[in-house]
Specification:
The structure holds 2 protein chains of 2 kinds. Chain A is α/β, with parallel strands linked by helices. Chain A has 2 helices and 4 strands. The two termini of chain B are 41 Å apart. Classes of the chains: A alpha/beta, B alpha+beta. At the A-B interface, β1 of A face α5, β10, β12, α8 and α12 of B.
Chain lengths: 98, 494
């Protein structure tokens, strides 16, 4: 029996063998007043300072601002929260902080 | 039902060569005797010519027939009825061969041959061929389903795997199908069983895929049950492997094994147990990291956002030393039976030394250990960062002789790591870091503990026999807001 693999070495793939499909970027948000913008606090210290300032700037320009927060910075946002933001808001700003 | 005889031979077996003229004479037209050669067509033809044989011969090209009946030795004479085996003789056993042949109505004349000769190993017993046959069988049974990567004859396997992003940078053992099949012998679990879904991208870790990574990391089959248990623990939601990768903190998964199987597989709980030079510790810890990289997709500077990392993120694993321990096994402390072997996964920084060469009583020793524990993360950061103390045997002896169990030791450590609030607020001692006065500032003379509870101080006994040292691992954010240690039973492989 042939043990040579045509002169090469046969190895097994150590990955989960999943194709990472290309996901196109969402279309840029049209900067029109009246859009609803979600501000997501990931619960890191001083993330709120940044978001407070952003809320002021956005409100001054006529955007509707919705403040949201993850339960803890150490875990991904729960699926329900992600869905809620996607349904209610036109865009999301996430405050990654350290 | 029709009976037939099958004689399996190979060209380079002197006992086969001695027997062949008699087989040739018996395999006349219409005879139920078939001669099957394990050698290739050219070698077999050359033998037939040399011995002036006339009987037809079949070449067992892919060794399928040989693998099916799986003889240890050739020549082998099989008696089949309706394709099912009814009897066999391996090697040259003159009387038994004659009797078996007679059962199929064949007269074998073996006069002049020795009464007994053991024969030669069947080609299926050649280690390389046996491994390839095991792979073929595993594929046919669906036990091996991974995609093949064929590395060219002129490629270096390590460089080829590195270029594909499949290693941590250090050389790996190439995961050939033969090695993976051998690795799977280390567990009784089905190869397609799902061990867990690995963060951050949710790759499915089957037993087979974990075995591929364990081969690469340098494991032996008996290490696989420890790796499977560690992967299972890492995929548990409360361990929060996703957050552990995403954080800028340096922690990584630390595997602490406890129980009788640790010694059987050669894990180190003694001198240099947190260091290099022990295959089992290194390979088990590294396997988990390769699983996170290759199955989960967590790569440094991409998904893994750690600002510094630490050397243990190549792989961190050690065993608890039960001999001389002041305490029952960690397995028991974690809710398992004391004689079970477990792994406990912690989200840990690099360890560092706590020295006390003077203390001879448990109170004094705990006072020193408490000073070391205060420094985890920051002396004024409290209630968030857990710790694991690795008590060295010379420190452990002091606790053991005083009869201090884990509960008593923890009680003392909790007491001695409790601070006056005013001393650990932001700004106290000139350092802006610390407890938030808006939350804690009401009573500066109140008390606040370093740890959220006694159970948040992990205690394990390990290390070399000389040295009045212990080691402390600081943890990543702990409990509900971060990672909770997870313990899994290691399933024995036999």
């Amino acid at each position: 029996m042939d043990l040579t693999h045509g002169g090469g070495l046969e190895l097994l793939d150590p990955t989960a063998e999943r194709e990472s499909g290309d996901r196109p970027l969402a279309a840029p948000v049209d900067g029109t007043a009246g859009l609803r913008i979600a501000l997501l606090d990931i619960r890191k210290p001083r993330g709120d300072v940044f978001l407070d300032e952003l809320e002021r700037l956005l409100s001054d320009r006529g955007f509707l601002v919705e403040r949201t927060a993850k339960p803890t910075f150490t875990r991904p946002a729960p699926a329900d929260l992600r869905r809620e933001i996607a349904e209610r808001c036109d865009a999301l700003v996430e405050a990654l902080a350290d | 039902m029709a009976r037939e005889l099958v004689a399996i031979i190979k060209h380079d077996c002197p006992v086969c060569v001695a027997l062949l003229p008699a087989l040739d004479a018996a395999a006349v037209d219409g005879s139920p005797l078939r001669i099957v050669s394990q050698s290739d067509g050219d070698d077999t033809a050359a033998l037939w010519e040399r011995l002036h044989l006339g009987a037809p011969v079949e070449i067992d090209e892919e060794l399928e027939l040989s693998a099916r009946f799986d003889p240890d030795a050739v020549p082998t004479l099989l008696l089949l009825e309706g394709g099912e085996e009814r009897g066999r003789v391996e090697g040259l056993a003159r009387d038994r061969l004659t009797e078996l042949a007679a059962e199929a109505g064949v007269a074998l004349h073996l006069d002049g041959l020795p009464a007994h000769r053991p024969g030669c190993a069947s080609r299926t017993r050649d280690p390389r061929i046996a491994a390839a046959l095991a792979v073929r069988a595993a594929r046919a049974q669906g036990r091996l389903r991974s995609r093949s990567l064929v590395i060219g004859a002129h490629e270096d396997p390590h460089e080829a795997l590195f270029e594909r992003g499949l290693t941590d940078g250090l050389p790996v053992v190439p995961p050939t199908p033969e090695r993976v099949v051998a690795m799977l012998e280390g567990t009784h679990r089905g190869s397609q069983e799902v061990v867990g879904v690995v963060p951050p991208y949710g790759g499915t870790a089957t037993v087979e895929k974990v075995a591929v990574n364990a081969v690469m990391a340098g494991c032996r089959p008996e290490h696989l049950p420890f790796v499977l248990a560690a992967v299972d623990a890492a995929c548990e939601e409360r361990f929060s492997m996703h957050g552990l990768l995403a954080t800028t903190h340096p922690a990584g998964p630390l595997v602490v094994a406890s129980g009788p199987l640790t010694e059987r597989v050669g894990m180190n709980a003694r001198g240099n147990c947190l260091g290099q030079g022990n295959r089992a510790n290194l390979a088990i810890g590294r396997s988990l990291q390769l699983v996170v990289r290759n199955l989960g997709g967590g790569r440094p500077q991409l998904e893994d956002r750690s600002a510094h990392g630490q050397p243990g993120k190549v792989g961190a694993c050690f065993a608890e030393l039960q001999e001389g321990s002041p305490w029952e096994p960690l397995s028991a402390d974690r809710g398992f039976d004391a004689d079970e072997t477990t792994v406990t996964l912690y989200a840990a920084e690099a360890p560092r030394l706590i020295l006390d060469q003077i203390a001879r009583d448990p109170e004094g020793l705990c006072a020193s250990l408490a000073l070391g524990l205060q420094s985890v993360a920051h002396p004024k950061q409290l209630l968030i960062w857990d710790a694991l103390l690795v008590i060295g045997p010379e420190h452990g002896r002091i606790l053991r002789e005083a009869g201090w169990d884990r509960a008593r030791t923890r009680e003392e450590l909790m007491r001695r790591t409790t601070s006056r609030v005013g001393d650990v607020l932001r700004g106290a001692g000139g350092s802006p870091e610390g407890l938030d006065p808006a939350v804690f500032g009401g009573n500066p003379d109140g008390a606040v503990p370093k740890f959220a509870g006694p159970e948040r101080i992990g205690l394990v006994h390990a290390g070399g026999g000389a040295g009045l040292f212990s080691m402390v691992y600081g943890m990543w954010a702990s409990g509900e807001i971060g990672s909770t240690p997870v313990t899994r039973r290691v399933e024995p492989w036999t």
